[in-house]
UniProtKB/TrEMBL annotation:
Pfam families, sorted: MFS_1 (PF07690)
InterPro entries the record matches: MFS, MFS_trans_sf, MFS_TsgA-like
Name of the molecule in the record: Glucose/galactose transporter
Keyword Cell membrane: yes
Source organism of the structure: Paecilomyces lecythidis
Residues in coiled coil: none
Subcellular location: Cell inner membrane
Protein topology in the membrane: Multi-pass membrane protein
Domain of life: Eukaryota
Keywords: Cell membrane, Membrane, Transmembrane, Transmembrane helix
Stretch list, region Disordered: 319-344
Length: 344
């Protein structure tokens, strides 16, 4: 498990910042949300697989790990195919100088982000990511306990988790589509979605039965775009500090090791409904960042959102090439004509 965790953390450290910066800056949130939505499909399939393999009534509990060895072997083979794909695919290297040049073209102030210790937008984003991921992992980790407490069997609870994860993935696609519209700015979406996570977690705590499960599933729905949007908004304006900032944001997922044990302790000593207070506090603490970007740093956020950098660049480049070739052809033609006139 340590080797798997180390590999996943390395992959995420490289992949998330790359997706955020490899394209037009105005679409960075959309790119990462779409990628996370595809990942969400896996989180939808996994509980269904677990309910059929791990929690099936026909499983021989005395067989131990033999019940799941083929599942893990299949995952290992798929990862091996991914390794080959990444080895063969040509990925460009993005340097700190490239990122600084992007900020210069966007034209934010003097394009100098200043020293790393003054990147307050990044530090608040890291804090928000830490608290949000902690809450998200806690909610997903104890959903089955919550559903069983509400009267469902372990297999039914696993299926309900699949429904929740499916809605989670669907809403990532939906959020990406909404962000394509000018009115739905990422900073607005983040503030609204985190607030609704808080609202529905409080509602789920204070209800029971099927109603509480439905409200709990709505928490998953509004968690959908939070991770990717926090990540990309926190990277805006960093320039030469972008790679370093990306590594800190990925490290912030360590919040997933802090909140679940606290929630587990409350589940053990009280119940899962009361334990929802732990992720609820995480959503509140994470809301510091959307407050900052909506009231104190909105000019920088909107500057990156409204820029046309790299949006029309390919068309303009091809037009320039066409003009260049036409200019090059004219002297050659006139030279030929002149030669024909001189030759008797």
């Amino acid at each position: 498990m340590f080797v798997v965790g180390a590999g996943l953390s390395t992959l995420e450290t490289a992949a998330d910042p790359f997706l955020s910066i490899c394209g037009p800056p105005r679409y960075s949130e959309i790119r990462l949300n779409l990628a996370q939505a595809v990942q969400g499909v896996g989180t939808f399939v996994a509980p269904l697989l677990a309910s059929r393999v791990f929690f099936a009534h026909t499983v021989d509990t005395n067989a131990g790990l033999k019940n799941v060895q083929w599942v893990y072997l299949g995952v290992a083979c798929f990862v091996a195919l991914l390794i080959i794909l990444f080895f063969l695919a040509p990925f460009p290297e993005i340097t700190d100088a490239d990122q600084q040049a992007v900020e210069t073209q966007i034209g934010e102030h003097s394009a100098d982000p200043g020293p790393f210790k003054k990147q307050y937008n990044l530090f608040l984003g890291v804090w928000s990511q830490f608290c949000y991921v902690g809450a998200q992992v806690a909610v997903a980790g104890y959903f089955i306990n919550f559903a069983q407490e509400a009267g469902r069997s372990s297999s039914e609870a696993s299926d309900l988790l699949a429904v929740a994860q499916g809605l989670y993935a669907f809403n990532r696609f939906l959020a990406s589509g909404l962000m394509m519209m000018k009115a739905f700015k990422p900073r607005y979406m983040l503030a609204a979605y985190l607030f609704l996570c808080f609202v529905f977690s409080v509602a789920a705590m204070n209800t029971s039965g099927t109603t509480s499960i439905a409200l709990f599933i709505l928490v998953f729905c509004f968690e959908s775009c939070c991770f990717a949007t926090i990540f990309t908004l926190a990277l805006r304006g960093l320039g030469r500090h972008t790679k370093r900032g990306g590594s800190l944001l990925v490290a912030a997922i360590s919040g997933g090791t802090v909140f679940p044990p606290m929630m587990g302790a409350v589940v053990t000593n009280r119940n899962a409904h009361v334990a929802l207070a732990i992720p609820m506090m995480g959503y509140i603490l994470a809301w510091v960042f959307p407050i900052y970007v909506n009231f104190f740093n909105k000019e920088s956020m909107d500057l990156h959102r409204n820029t046309d950098l790299n949006v029309h660049h390919p068309a303009e480049k091809s037009l320039e090439l066409e003009r260049g070739s036409s200019v090059t052809d004219k002297p050659a033609t006139s030279t030929v004509e002149h030669t024909e006139q001189v030759v008797p």
